[in-house]
Amino acid sequence: PPQPTIVASVLPADFAELGSQLLELEKAGVDRVQWDVMDGCFVPNLTFGPDVIAATRGLVDLGFEAHLMVADPDPMLPRWVEAGCGIVIVHAEACPHLHRTLGRIKELGARTGVALNPATPLAAVEHVLDLVDLLLVMTVNPGFGGQRYLASMESKIAAARGLIDGRGLDIELEVDGGIARDTIGAAARAGATVFCAGSALFTGPGTMADRVATLRAGAT
Ligand code: DX5
Question: Region 10-39: what's the mean pLDDT?
Fold first, then answer.
């Protein structure tokens, strides 16, 4: 089985110490950082823009993925890549022209991601999988960290795993929301191989490295 990828969501980080928090995440052994970009319109919360991401780009070697929880991602697509994000994830629900948007992300030289909110069927990406590098199945309703994992998403995770493997596609299957030591095993058994965690990394027993190791062990 593939080694699990542990992605740290910076949403619960101490924003007054963002740089040192990223250094701590790198030292703790996370594989990637997810920037939860929120516009206060697509989700009822507002976080950070490309300048904040760019300010930290030179501090760590970790890969950055921008999770765009925004109502209209097209106008600012280049900004996330310029800020240092190697993966740009858009929400299917926010892209009336998803095929074109994914093509534009590829033209910018980044890898593409599509996120699906809990109510959104897998069918929303069925006809653009040739343009998708990462599929993000939300296991909470986006907007805030610290919410409860939705086990009802496991059927969608399993269906996504079946679709990806069935067609022999090289697409990362990521889950995000409420991923912790007591939920990551079920998400992994359902077929996820990339796990985005916020609260479970920034809070809990032991050191940050302990918590990364606990999640990694729970996913295998
Ligand atoms: C939801 C956010 C959260 C965050 C992780 O909009 O995307 O899922 O990444 O938060 P936790 O791991 O605390 O649920």
Answer: 98
Spatial CA neighbour of 19 closest among 50, 48, 65, 52? 52
Q: Is the pLDDT of residue 26 over 80?
A: yes
Q: For residue 168, give every residue at least 6 positions away whose Cβ sits within 8 Å of its Cβ, in sequence order, or none.
A: none
Residue 2's pLDDT is 79
Write out the E strands in 139-191.
172-176
> Is the pLDDT assigned to residue 1 strictly greater than 80?
no
Q: Is residue 112 within 8 Å of 88, Cβ to Cβ?
A: yes
- Looking at residue 35, its pLDDT comes to 98
Residue 201 pLDDT exceeds 80: yes
Q: How far apart are CA 38 and CA 89, in angstroms?
A: 12
Active site residue: 39, 51, 165, 176, which one?
176
∠116-34-132 over CA atoms, to 5°? 45
Q: Would you say residue 66 has pLDDT above 80?
A: yes
Both tokens of 205, joined, read: 């027993």
Among 196, 201, 211, 215, name the best residue to mutate to test ligand 1's pocket (greatest count of ligand atoms within 8 A of Cβ): 196
d(CA 14, CA 172): 28
